[in-house]
Specification:
Blueprint: H1 2-19, E1 24-43, E2 50-62, E3 68-80, E4 84-94, E5 97-108, E6 111-121, E7 129-136, E8 145-155
Antiparallel strand pairs: 1-2, 1-8, 2-3, 3-4, 4-5, 5-6, 6-7, 7-8
């Protein structure tokens, strides 16, 4: 009886261990190409070059190993002659799950940089938290933005 009970409990421990996700941290680094989809630009009265830009955007993430993902996001910026703060909310969708984050940053002299705060995730990124960075990259293309993205994704065990 004791031997059967010990065997049963050992088997249960293996099943529980196999079904429990392991907490961890993963760093995702990729290039992101974004394009405006539905954007409104409003000029401020009596302030030359002052605009508020708000809208929906879409992007494609490309990893060095060839994996890809997509990004849907909303963005608002308050720019004086192209420079100023921006913020938004984005959802990245990858083959194995998604990550939703809020970001803030600033644009100056045609370059952008900012930071992410990861709010949630699905799939392998379920209940994710973390941070990240946004940095503009040299861009040979017109009508799109090219960015370097780094996300430090923390996932809890379940």
């Amino acid at each position: 009886m004791r031997k059967s009970l010990a065997l049963f409990l050992s088997g249960m421990a293996v099943v529980v261990a196999a079904s429990t996700a392991v907490a961890g941290e993963q760093v995702l680094e990729f290039k992101l190409v974004t394009k405006p989809i539905d954007v409104k630009v409003m000029e401020a009265a009596n302030i030359e070059g002052q605009t508020v830009v708000s809208g929906k955007f879409f992007g494609v993430a490309v990893f060095k190993d060839g994996r890809i993902g997509v990004k849907e996001f909303v963005n608002t910026s308050d720019l004086l002659k192209g420079s100023g703060p921006f913020f938004g909310y984005s959802t990245y969708t990858f083959e194995d799950g998604s990550i939703t984050a809020r970001y803030t940053g600033s644009a100056k002299d045609g370059k952008s940089q900012g930071e992410y705060t990861i709010l949630s995730g699905t799939g392998v990124y379920a209940n994710a938290t973390g941070t990240g960075t946004i940095e503009s990259a040299p861009n040979p293309f017109k009508g799109v933005n090219l960015l370097n993205i780094k996300l430090v994704v923390k996932t809890p065990g379940t």
